[in-house]
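Weekly structure sync - notes
Attendees: PM, LS, DV (DV joined late)
Agenda: review two folding runs queued last week.

Item 1: First target. Sequence and structure tokens pasted below for the record.
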Amino acid sequence: MAIALALLAWVLSRWLVARIGKRARGLIERIGGSPDPESLEVFAEHERIAEFSQLALWAADSWRARLRALAIERETLAFLGHELRTPLQSARTSLALLQDDRDNDEAWRRLQRAQNRLLRASHSVLWLGSDAEPPTGACCAVGPLLAGLVDEFTTLAHARGQTLAVDVPEGLQWPLPEEVAETVVANGLLNAIQHGGPGLVSLEATTSGLVLENRRAPDSGPSGFGLGLLLSERLLARFGWALSRAQTPERVRLILGSPR
């Protein structure tokens, strides 16, 4: 009797192992052959073995996380391509002019603007690509920061018939690293100049953040900020800030909001 029971247990165990192995191979094939994470989630809902269902869900989550990481990498590379192209072209033009005339003040100013933009692009990529926790206690003096950006972009704004106006309380500080604040404000200001219409471009800074407002160009499309706005949102979100944009037929408003 004992031998018969042992034989029966051996047969049942072999049958059970074979069945589990078959289901496991089916799970591997399903994971490898699924066209997207959603298909795996549907499979997991109908899988009767709870452990296999959980494995399929983990695979779907891992897949989706990888897709998000790839999308962020593509955005960052597109941002680099966009942000580097214009200042590099400007730098080449400026250097060509300076070869003919080293006292060309306008060429020197253009070269300085190109260098500043390249530095801001590099700072953006470093922050966006880093997994490190944002530094605590970071702050920046808003008045000097905005004054420097206005000085940098005034010539460009005047060429487009625009006037830059800044309203900032004395001694105002934001809880942001200076390079992050400078990168985001410069991106918004440059877009307001390049895509906006003639007239006043105003920057109003408070403890709550910044409101940047300009007239819409008659031929402007529905956006104009594009990838720079998306990456500015990501950059600010790392520090708990928010970025929003609103527009009317006449005006465009960009709002940087600090944490409450």
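Item 2: Second target, run right after the first with the same settings.
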Amino acid sequence: MKSSKEIEPNLRVLTDYQAFHIQRFGGITRYFFEIISRMTDVSAKISIAFSMNQYIRTFAKAEHTHINARVFKIAEGLFRKLNRQSSIAEIRKGNFDIFHPSYYDPYFVKYLDGKPFVLTIHDMTHEVLPEYFSPNDPIYANKRLLAEKATRIIAISKCTKQDIIKIYGINESKIDVIYHGIAPMKAVEDNRLQLPDKYILYVGERRRYKNFITLVEAFEQISKIRPDINLVLTGRKLSKEEKTLFAQKNISNKVFVFSSIDDNTLALLYRKAEMFVYPSLYEGFGIPILEAFSNQCPVVLSKASCFPEVAGDAAEYFEATNVGALIQSITRILEDKLYRNELVAKGNERLKLFTWENTAKETVKTYKKAIEEFGNKPLLTT
């Protein structure tokens, strides 16, 4: 059995391929990249053979072959098989003290051979809002299984922790709340974007639980009163159904979509926006809130899940499915410059609570607690 002096200076952490196989960009891979980049006195490795992920493209702690996204998607099944084999081989070597899977597939459990693992639960959306997902989605059983088997669990908000306890019956002492952070974002002017002069910004996916339809219905009314205001979206291109919806509401010429943008462009979109609106019914944390704060962008949030916990009094809130309430919130930001500036100032202060350096530091503490609890090894120091 290793003593704390033998383990602590070179705590060995292994993360697997899962999220890095799925995401080119995305919150989960960003989370792992940021914390692994900032861990001190830790030897960390991401085990993956092939990836289209941009964060680890040249990352020394994730040696792999980078594949063009289009090619990767064509041969996704083959790359998944090779990536899994790579992770299994690395796990079997046993050259790590703690395993931290990047997603919820439990394939690795039988290969751990007496090693502890820490599970990060990013949200409980499927469990809280099952009506928006297929009942056959394996994430339900997989996440519960891993939550029960994990040595310790990281929840990214108090709201998520409470949902884990309520739904899974997990003892609260097993769960550490560790907030996300925010990396510096630099807004870079790009005249090719052809941004409208005044716009409301919506960032991310537009799946049903994101409650995007409430924003669309509110914007339809706002555009009649303020024809100078537009709606800017990031993420995937418009679907046929969305195009039809916008045409029916006579707002097609006021909706602009920017896909596959980098962080610098995203920062510019925030900085030039009249406000950022996040109407989601449920989130585990809400990184876009911090992104908006860091770019002096007023924030309008649904009064749901973790949003008040993360944003505090630095945002304007509305009841999630109340279109009239959202219209009032948007109108207030548009018309009250003093209030707008007040929210921006509060956002700047709120931002100080969330850093990736602290996330990494607290995560290492959780690793050490897990090892100590699993093998009774005294790793925690004062």
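Discussion on item 2: Residues 4-181+355-375 form a domain with the Rossmann fold fold (CATH 3.40.50.2000).
Action: LS to circulate a short write-up before next sync.
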